[in-house]
């Protein structure tokens, strides 16, 4: 049976990443702007580092990139609410909050690529099991 093993120092970083992410969202929920905004940076930086470290495994890379795009969209949305830009119109009925769809859809694209394109072309890969 194939196993994916995460080195302990990487796992500790992933766990710390969850703490930062929760603190960012708590700041958003409680409208503690300094906490929410400050926590964007370690949350996003660690997600990029995790994606970089898993770049050899397409499955991990695509999922970790999707998480990075999710955090980006989530952070943009939070900041747009903090700055009261979320309801302002960009064009027609599109508001600044709707622009968060761009990174959200980039994350969906990463996963769609993995499941619809990469996996079917690499059925022999242990990553697809």
Automatic annotation (TrEMBL):
This is Uncharacterized protein. Keywords: Membrane, Transmembrane, Transmembrane helix. The chain crosses the membrane at residues 30-52, 61-79, 99-117.
């Amino acid at each position: 049976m194939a196993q994916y093993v995460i080195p302990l120092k990487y796992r500790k970083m992933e766990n710390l990443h969850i703490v930062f992410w929760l603190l960012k969202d708590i700041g958003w929920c409680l409208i503690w702007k300094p906490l929410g905004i400050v926590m964007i940076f370690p949350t996003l930086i660690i997600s990029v580092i995790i994606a970089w470290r898993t770049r050899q495994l397409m499955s991990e890379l695509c999922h970790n990139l999707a998480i990075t795009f999710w955090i980006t969209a989530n952070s943009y949305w939070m900041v747009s609410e903090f700055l009261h830009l979320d309801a302002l119109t960009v064009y027609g009925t599109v508001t600044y909050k709707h622009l968060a769809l761009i990174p959200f859809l980039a994350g969906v694209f990463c996963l769609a690529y993995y499941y619809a394109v990469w996996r079917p072309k690499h059925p022999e890969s242990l990553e697809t099991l």
